[in-house]
Structure formats: C-alpha cells, structure tokens
Amino acid sequence: MKGRILSGIQPTGNFHIGNYFGALNQWVQLQNDYECLFCVVDLHAITTNYDPRKLLQHTREVAAAYIAAGIDEKKCIIFPQSAVASHAELGWIFSCMTPLGWLNRMTQFKEKAGKNKEKASLGLYSYPVLMAADILAYKATHVPVGEDQKQHLELCRDIAGAFNRFVKDEYFTLPEPLIQKHGARIMSLRDGTAKMSKSDPSEGSRINLKDSDEEIMQKIRKAKTDMNLFPDTFEDAKGRFEVKNLITIYALMTNQDPQSVCSQFSGGNFAPFKKALTDAIVERIAPIRNEFNRLMQDKEALDIILENGAHKAREIADVTKTQVFEYLGLYR
Ligand code: ADP
Ligand code: TRP
Q1: Rounded-to-integer distance, Cα 327 and Cα 321, Å
Q2: Domains of the chain
Q3: Which residue ranges have their beta carbon within 6 Å of ligand 1?
Q4: CA-to-CA distance for 69 and 21, rounded, in angstroms?
Q5: Which residues of the chain carry a pLDDT beneath 50?
Q6: pLDDT (tens digit, 9 = 90+) per residue, 301-310?
C-alpha cells in the first residue's frame, strides 16, 4: 500500500457527471493502491442553507453513488462524517490553533458567502478547519481533491504543522494532495464558462447520475453549441467553450483523448455528434444509475454499510483524538 487516503463529498443532492469524473472515477482507481476512507461530509453540508428533511436521504445517495461507481465497500471504509464524533471534536481543537489570518485568505468562503458576509455562518467560515480534522483524524497521507480544494488542503498542512510545533513533536505527517490532470472540470451544458454544479438552478445544465436515458437525451439535445461546424482539432475549439466541453465529456465517456474525437467528427454538423454523445453517456452512466437505484431501494442494507464503515472509522479516529487530548492536557 502506498499510504492512506481520505476524501469526501457533500450530500447536497443532484450528484452529477462532473462529480463522477472529477472525484469518484479517480477514487475507484486509487482504491487498489491505498488504504481508503471515503466520507459523506454531512457536517459540511449544513454550513449553508439546506433542508433537514432531505439531508439523510442525500447522505445515503452519495454513499450509493460511491458504491455504484465502483468503490468496493469491502476494501474501503465508507461512512457519514457525523457518525464519528472525533471529527467535530478535533475540529474545535484545530480551530484554537488556526489564526484568523489564515482563514481570511480562503477564497471558497468569499465565493460562498458572496456579498452577504455578515449573514454567513461561523460554520461556513471555519469549514476548512473541519476539513483538516477529517483528514488528520486518520493521519491520511494523500487526499484526492479537485483543484478548487487545493487551498483547503494547504491550510490542513499548516494546521498540522502548527499542532506539531505546539506539542514539540512530529505527531502529524503533512498530507499530500492528489489532483488529477484530465477531466478535472466539466462545465455547464448551458454555459461553457460556468462549472457543472449541483447548486445550478437549471436542471438542463447538468447530467445527474439519476437521470433516465430519456432525460439524458433531452439535455444533450438542448445543450448549447454554436453556428459553426465541428472543429478539426481540439486546438481549433479554443474560445468555443460549450463545444469544447461537449468534446471533453464525449472523450471522458469513451476513454479517448479529445483530439481523436475531433478527428472523428471533424467538419460535420452537431446532430450526429449529439446522437453519439447521448449513446456514449447512456452506455457509461446507465449501469451506474441502475446499480444506484438498486442500492437506494434497500435502505437497510445501505445503512448497515454506513454503520460498519462508521465503526471502523471511529476506531482509527478515536485513537487520534485521545492522543491529541493527551498532548493538550485535556481531560479524558
Ligand atoms: P458542486 O459544485 O456540484 O456542489 P462539490 O463542490 O460538492 O460539487 O464537489 C464534490 C467533488 O466533485 C469535488 O471533489 C469537486 O472537485 C468535484 N467536482 C464538482 N463539480 C465538478 C465539475 N464540474 N467538474 C469536475 N469535478 C467537479
Ligand atoms: N470540501 C470538500 C469539497 O467541497 C469536501 C470535503 C470535506 C473533503 N472534507 C474533506 C474533501 C476531506 C477531502 C478531504 O469538495
């Protein structure tokens, strides 16, 4: 084994192909080489507005998506963050070691809080500290994340360093990011300059893992392109954001590079390409969706997987917490 991995996705509903190619697909490949823990970060999901009646359902959905995409629950630990109390406890401790200046630099907070900074919650502000606790609770050596999370991982390394200096011991090793090079960013089907996102109010902007074949067909049919013909090379697609995005999606779905997609469809109009793209998405996504639906029908089996995962996760995280309490002179 090359080390220990921890990563997580928020249960905010609408799991889409961007999440699949940006995160899950990479995790599936990593599970053979690393000891893996995959968390459903429900405590992070409550930092912004959410519906408590839907949260648990969304947590199960993310876990089902992990398994349906190919994460083997026998090999990896799959668990909900809130089931392991040490995350929140360590989060508090690390918050006492994180200078405000470090948090003030976090760009995600600025983006998510928007203009209404005064109304954003303390939880949204300290979100990266909880993320550091998720990672350090397991002394993870590697963390696969999207480009957007790189800054949070840097902060996690800074916090680990601050702890080590404070207790005068090399207790935490600094975790390394694993950032994938290709397919790291899929864009909206309606606007090639905005990333495909769960929170986009337009359903037509994304392909969800749950979409039926019919819905996939409709969304691709309506996906934005332009008046020009299909580009001869991927380089020629420069500036044609929507076209580039559809080529990228087709390339990812069919495991080829974008250039060979261009050679195949070069000079044509978009109708035959869209037909091929629909077929490719359906072929790749339908088996995952069917497995996802099957898992979601048996909530009890899913809850057993989550509870087993939580049990194994607690055993690791609680040791870290106890040792941290000891270092800091806290009662235990
Ligand atoms: P969203 O923006 O849809 O709410 P999250 O922020 O919850 O997604 O991200 C969950 C994971 O999926 C992260 O690892 C993130 O990097 C990845 N991800 C999200 N959107 C995309 C996208 N459009 N393309 C590629 N990866 C994505
Ligand atoms: N912040 C991450 C995201 O939005 C999710 C996350 C929470 C995470 N804790 C983590 C990712 C720990 C990796 C490791 O995508």
Answers
A1: 10
A2: 4-178+298-328 (3.40.50.620), 203-293 (1.10.240.10)
A3: 9-10, 12, 18-19, 21-23, 145-146, 148, 184-186, 195-199
A4: 10
A5: none
A6: 999 999 999 9
